[in-house]
Structure prediction request, 303 residues.
Amino acid sequence: MKFQGIYPPAVTPYAPDGSIDKKAYAEVLESLIEAKVHGVVVGGSTGEYYAQTAQERFDLAAHAKDVLKGRIPLIIGTGATRTEDSIEYAKAAKSIGADAILVSSPPYAIPTERENAVHALAIDRAANLPIMLYNYPARMGVSMGEEYFSRVGKSKNVVAIKEASGDMARVHMLAREFPHIGLSCGWDDQALEFFAWGAQSWVCAGANFLPKEHIALYEACVVEKNFDKGRKIMSAMLPFMNLLDGGKFVQSIKFGCELSGLKVGNVRAPLRPLTSEEKRALQTVVTNLKRTIAQIILGANHA
Prediction:
């Protein structure tokens, strides 16, 4: 599998009683298919995997497979602190016919690079599926370094990495030293730079409710190779990305889905919903973003 395009990590809708709303989840997935995203990630942090039981995660993955019916690729997150748990999520992904898995560092454990590599390769052996690595040191406590990549990168299954450190020097290192591992943008306000350095995909939570705008940036930079247009789109998106950096990321994504007519409910504890003031601020930013990018696209089409 080659990762190319926009891959939203799908939000998980909850009913008023806190249970997972599978009907609403199907509607989220159908909306992404209709928007022509290039694949979907289930069991990511935007999907609140950390607040779900193992059985809920197994059920969500299987339900997503049933809904998607092979229309777009399905990538299953295997994130867990225990290697044994990550292996079970990987095996479950294999059993339902997922197209790939997302492999991160185990949070809280603080493994060495060698230990982290052994962790990843154990998951790889369990599933034998294409792998997108996920480097997110701010959440996991450790960063995937050159020793890690020299070990894990030897597997034919390791085809991409979602790089979410925010450190452009790492993007340069990956592009130059490990070109066989496809770059995927995991730090939204650096998307333009990722594409300039050869990234072919973007795992972006905002595409849950702004898929057209995220696809527009991808197409401008990667398909059309029109970075003048890409800079204009990126500039229009930056206020939204800056707002997301305010600390209520998943809450903002879920409220954005509500603005788009998707009934996804609140976040699970320990998180809390946005305040009325925060909702108004997000709505204003989103309205301006959509209007500005629509004008950019219209202008480019008539140029």
